[in-house]
Structures are given as C-alpha cells and as structure tokens.
Amino acid sequence: EEAEKSGYENYMLKEIHEQPKSLRDAIAGRLNELTGEVVMPELTLTKADIDDIKRIVIVACGTSYHAGLIGKYAIESMTDIPVSVEIGSEFRYSANRLGHETLVIALSQSGETADTIAAVKGSIKKGARVLAITNVVGSTVSREANYSIYMRCGPEIGVAATKTFTSQIVIMYMVALYLGTMKGMLGAEQNIRMVAELKALPNKVQRLLENERYIMGLASLFRNAGQFFFVGRNLNYPIALEGALKLKEISYIISEGYAAGELKHGPLALITTNIPVIAIATQCATYHKMVSNIKEIKARDASVIAIASESDGLIDQLVDFVVRIPDSNEYIAPILSTIVLQLFAYYIAVFRGCPVDKPRNLAKSVTVE
Ligand code: G6P
Fold first, then answer.
1. Beta bridge partners of residue 131, listed in sequence order
2. Is the backbone of residue 132 left (phi > 0), alpha (psi -120 to 50) or beta?
3. Distance (Å, rounded) from C-alpha 365 to C-alpha 109?
4. Where's the active site on this chain (predicted)?
5. pLDDT tens by residue, the chain, 369 residues
6. ipTM of this complex prediction, to 2 decimal places
C-alpha cells in the first residue's frame, strides 16, 4: 500500500497531485487544436441524432452531481438544448416525461452507484438515450448506457472524489463543445480558443500546486472553525457546493455552499465574526456582483478568504486572505478553484487528525439505494 501512495501521506493527497496528469489524459487525442474540434469516436451520436435531442437530463450523486451542475451551464451556453440536473435518488420522483428526444447523461466515477444505475435503467425503459461518463471501464452504468465516455483517471482510492471531479468537468466541456459544434452554434474561433484553454489547463494546475504551502497555512489558521460558508455565482456556484462537500466529508466541519446572490434570502442572518466565508471571485461576467456580495459579508465582520485570479488588483483591499489562481477563462477558472478547495479541505482534515482517505460513515461507492 505504501508503494501505491508513491511517497504521499495518503491517497487523497496523491490524487490531488495527479491532476495535471489526469487532466492531460482526459483530453489526450480528444481535441484538435487547429480546428477547435472535439474528436470522440466513442460519442457515436450523428448530426441527425443530435438534432433530435430536445432536452438533456443529467443525473448523478454526490460530487458527480456538482460536475453535472457545471455541465448544465456549459451545455446551455454552447447549444440551444435545455438541461436539467437531477440527484440520482430523486430522479424517480420527478414527473420526467422521458422519451427518444431526451438525452440522459449519467455521471458516475464508479459507474456502480445504485441510485444512478436505477435512473439509467428507468430512462432506457422509457425510451431515452443514455450517455454514461464514468471512470471504471465496464462498470454497470457504462454497460447499460447507449454511449459511454471514460475519464481515464486511473483508480481513485480516497473516498472523497478529487481528480475524477475535475476530469468530469473537462469531459462535460468537451461534450458541450461537441454538441454545440454539431448544431452549428459555435464559431470556429470560439472553439479554437476553448480548446487552447483546455490544453493549457494541466500546466496551470501544476503551477497552482506550487502554492500548496500557502493553502496549508490558511488551513492551519482556520482549523478550529466550527462552520464555514462557501459562496460563488454562475459556474462558481457548483464549485462552492463542492468545496463545502469536501470539507464536510473529510473534516466533519459543518459547511454550507451557497449561490452568492441567495445570501440575502436567509444565510446573511447567520454571518457573524465567527463564520469564515470562502468566496470564489475569479474573473468572469459576475465578478462585480461577487465583489458586492463580499462587501455585504465583510459588513457583518466575517473573515473572508477569496479565491481570485492572479491579475486581480482589487480583491486584496476587500478581504482578509486571497488565494491566487492562474488567469483563465470562465470555464477553466472553476477547475483551478476546485483544486484550491480540495487542498484546503485536505489540510484542515489533517490538522484535525481526521482519517482523510476513509472518512467515518462514508463509502467510495454507494451500491445500496
Ligand atoms: C459516494 C462517494 C462520493 C461520490 C458519490 C457518487 O458518496 O463518497 O465521493 O461523489 O458516491 O459516486 P459516483 O461513483 O457515482 O460518482
């Protein structure tokens, strides 16, 4: 087992550090830099098939559900297809009228999560087509589905998902690009730019990981906090949810992820000096709105840690601590912010003496409904 950890303290830290490679593998051979096209022979949907799709339902559990929420933003902005995202265990209760015009995307690292399998089987029965995105070749979800894309992350042993989450996001982007291109909704220039951003991602992750000590220092400073809030807007909202989930899972700290614009509808009542808030405030269309939210939070004297872009010259004056990520477009920045939050949760858990790879009461793959 020690050999498998390649010198790391535990699997989770190893898997966080594997992300430059797992992301490189996720895109290898699947993107054409010159034309901006996605090359995914496993996605055998023809142009006619895609034109038939009237809506997409993404179904997933846990961390995979958060990747699904990101997928919704990406697909809806790159195509004209409406997307809904459903939690596996709730899927059966929705009055979903699934048929041939529905594409169900089942996101599951293991491909063995009982609720996701049930949703896939139910969808096929109703005549929908299912695209599986999993990490385990030959898993139940991929066998049941009509189309299947693999994440190529290699085994993920830590119970809390890390490298598979970032690969799921990248694959969702590639699916969105593929659908958008087939539907003629994306200009070549837009595609080429996005492909270049995706290709540059692994090196940016590498650079970000060099910041680890600073994140470790922050974790040490906040290790005794009783609660945390994570806030973000747009694509950064699912990342806030995921940051909160990571912290809950491995450090047992009560943490809430919130859409920053919703704070005023309730959670602001909870914000006091004792609750640190992590604000994902990278450069994107909603940046200035995030700045306003941060000011509202600071007015209640909470400590704010912001995750911000390298070139942001404003944020330092507004918050208590800033973690910088390499400048990127609005799709790539959330992936980099995620890795900051993975490290933050990891080190808090380590400082609190928690068993990071095997948190209490949790399983890597939940095979019961
Ligand atoms: C369990 C794991 C989570 C994972 C979820 C969904 O709860 O502890 O890390 O996100 O299952 O798993 P899946 O394999 O379907 O992605």
1. 105, 147
2. beta
3. 9
4. 364 (for fru-6p isomerization activity)
5. 766 888 999 999 999 999 999 999 999 999 999 999 999 989 989 999 999 999 999 999 999 999 999 999 999 999 999 999 999 999 988 777 788 999 999 999 999 999 999 999 999 999 999 999 999 999 999 999 999 999 999 999 999 999 999 999 999 999 999 999 999 999 999 999 999 999 999 999 999 999 999 999 999 999 999 999 999 999 999 999 999 999 999 999 999 999 999 999 988 889 999 899 999 999 999 999 999 999 999 999 999 999 999 999 999 999 999 999 999 999 999 999 999 999 999 999 999 999 999 999 998 988 888
6. 0.97
Sign of the alpha-carbon dihedral angle for 245, 246, 247, 249: positive
Q: 169-179 burial string, b = 16+ CB within 10 Å, else e?
A: bbbbbbbbbbb
Q: Coil, helix or strand for 255?
A: strand
Q: Is the dihedral of CA 337, 157, 155, 73 positive or negative?
A: negative
Ligand 1 pocket list (CB less than 6 A): 61-64, 108-110, 113, 116, 159-161, 362, 364-366
Spacing, Cα 112 to ligand 1 middle (Å): 9
CA dist., res. 168 & res. 67, Å (int): 6
pTM given for the model: 0.97
